[in-house]
Amino acid sequence: MSESVLVTALIVGLLGGVHCLGMCGGVVGALTFGLKADIQRSRFRMLKFQLAYNLGRILSYALIGAFFGFLGSGLMTLDGLLPIQVSLQMLAGLLMVALGLYLGGWWNGIVVIERFGQSLWEKLKPKVQKYSMVENYTQAWIYGFLWGWLPCGLVYSMLIMAMSSGGLLDGALIMLFFGLGTLPNLLLMGVFAFYFTRLARAVWVRRIAGLTVALFGLWELYSALALRVN
């Protein structure tokens, strides 16, 4: 796996953070304002709790990425590496284009994909609510780990990329870098909740992020087609 794939995952996570702020803003806000008053008064203590949430979330991404990478490696040994790798890479590119269109407010088709994860989330929801009143870092970490399973088209598109990597470790690394890319937005959202909620709803922010993610998707499609030709 080339370093450019990890860089792509990192940048998509950073730009897709606009989607994270919109979709997870309620979760982050609830976590922020659900903390004890003395914690809320200290930006430093609140930041440490937000780090615990997000480290748990990123770990869940890495574990899911490892699983999908393992699945991809199994598929590639069945029918040969190249055809399946190209197909998965093209699918990842198409999903990223669809996500970019969604972020920019031009097309909402990606929402249909998110519905596939609703059944799993409904099973996890009672466990997540159990940890909603966070009092220590361990509870925050567990909450974040469960939060990582929230249905999300952005995550699903990156999981296809992890599957196309064809390896357990590569899949985990792709999702790890993607999760690290989402970290700045959600950390800032947690500490400065009101300001970043307004920023995420700004049309120009969403359109710039959407256009950039869509371009990354087109690049993935081009790379897959070039791989097929060669």
Automatic annotation (TrEMBL):
Domain of life: Bacteria
Keyword Transmembrane helix listed: yes
Urease accessory protein UreH-like transmembrane domain ranges (all copies): 8-219
Transmembrane portions of the chain: 6-37, 58-78, 90-113, 140-160, 172-196, 208-227
Keyword annotations: Membrane, Transmembrane, Transmembrane helix
Record has Transmembrane as a keyword: yes
Name the record gives this protein: Sulfite exporter TauE/SafE family protein
Species lineage: Bacteria, Pseudomonadati, Pseudomonadota, Gammaproteobacteria, Thiotrichales
